[in-house]
Design a protein that fits this description.
This protein has 180 residues and is of the alpha+beta class. The strands form two sheets. A three-stranded antiparallel sheet has the order 2-1-4. Strands 3-5 form a two-stranded parallel sheet. The longest helix is centred in the first third of the chain and has 30 residues. The two termini are 28 Å apart.
Amino acid sequence: MKRFLDLLFALILIILFSPLFLIITILIKLDSPGPVFFRQNRIGRLNKKFIIYKFRTMRIDAPKDIPTHLFDNPHEYITRVGKFLRKTSLDELPQLINILKGEMSFIGPRPALYNQYDLIKLRTEKGIHILTPGITGWAQVNGRDEITIEEKVSLDEYYYTNRSLSVEIKILLKTLISVT
């Protein structure tokens, strides 16, 4: 049922947001040279690699395989349009494509970078790796990048063991509140 709802809502949102996709595409192209989309290897369900899609928010010379919060000076790389896209989480919209492809869900643990071996190892030990990663999740709405890997896995484990419609609705509502 979750997969059906993911597909249905992803299709509806792509149609509804298609004018916004076009506007963001134009703004990115006007703001800085390079591609519109940022593609990155991530770890998905059962630890399989997949390519995640986002709107590009950084200059093309930014480091590719390091989480932004670990950069020495991340603001040096973020474009003007990128700053707005990140603040509003609009840079995440292309992940609707990942949902259509079955690589992601709306709600689940955020997919690890392919080189975040400690996070991948801990999630695998806890069985979390069997979940389809999400655009948002319990760890996202309870700390995002400000928490340690161990805290993130603990929150992911809470989601894994307490998955239910009510938990998913709570995550969705907390996500909507945090981006508005």
